[in-house]
Amino acid sequence: MESTRTADETAIRALLDRSRDAWDRGDGAGYGAQFTEDATDVTYVGTVYRGAAEIGRAHQALFDSFLKGTRLALEITDLRLHGQGTAVVVTRGDVHKGTRRPRRPGKVATYTVVRDTDGQWRIAAVQKTRRRPLMEAFSFRLQPSTRPAAG
Fold first, then answer.
1. Which of 2, 26, 102, 133 makes a 20 to 30 Å CA pair with 69?
2. Which of the residue ranges 27-31, 38-42, 84-88, 136-140 would you say has the lowest mean pLDDT?
3. Do residues 115 and 85 touch, judged by C-beta distance below 8 A?
4. Given pLDDT bands bounded at 50, 70 and 90, which one contains residue 2?
5. How would you label 57-69 residue by residue, b for 16+ Cβ within 10 Å and e otherwise?
């Protein structure tokens, strides 16, 4: 059982690595291929894309314009398997240009990943949120009980 869990965690990490690598190459189709056919991608500005094809198409347009030459920094902060075919992954990351990674990642993303019909892990949903450290600190100072146990 533990070896299956380790293999699944390794496969999920590889999935997010492939997603990041496609982003870094500016490859919308490759990026979209990491999603399920009925996936949902909610961007940090609130745009909702549905399905691997639309996610790939829209990201190619972004890679060709606003996101041209960007790279995706991605750090997994939590990975939890739920049953045999579903996991929730929380990441911190950011989009940047050049090889220098951001010192303080400004986004948090929550991924729901599933074992697809072909047995491969794919992203079924992702929701990205811009992190507001100053607002967090203010909230924690005014109401300390809002601070999460792990940060």
1. 133
2. 136-140
3. yes
4. low
5. ebbbebbeeebee
Handedness of CA 65, 61, 75, 135 (dihedral sign): positive
| 121: β partners | 115
Which of residues 150 and 122 earns the better pLDDT score?
Answer: 122
Residue owning tokens 């220098």: 100
Q: Which two tokens stand for residue 54?
A: 């639309």
Q: What is the pLDDT of residue 145?
A: 78
Cβ contacts of 146 within 8 Å, gap of 6 or more: 139, 140
Instruction: Say whether pLDDT at 98 is over 80.
Output: no
CA dist 145 and 129 (Å) reads: 22
- CA gap 9, 3 in Å, rounded: 10
Q: What is the pTM of this model?
A: 0.87
- Per DSSP (E only), the strands in the chain are 35-42, 48-50, 70-81, 86-97, 107-115, 121-130
The set of residues, in sequence order, having a beta carbon less than 8 Å from that of 21 and lying 6+ positions away, is 30
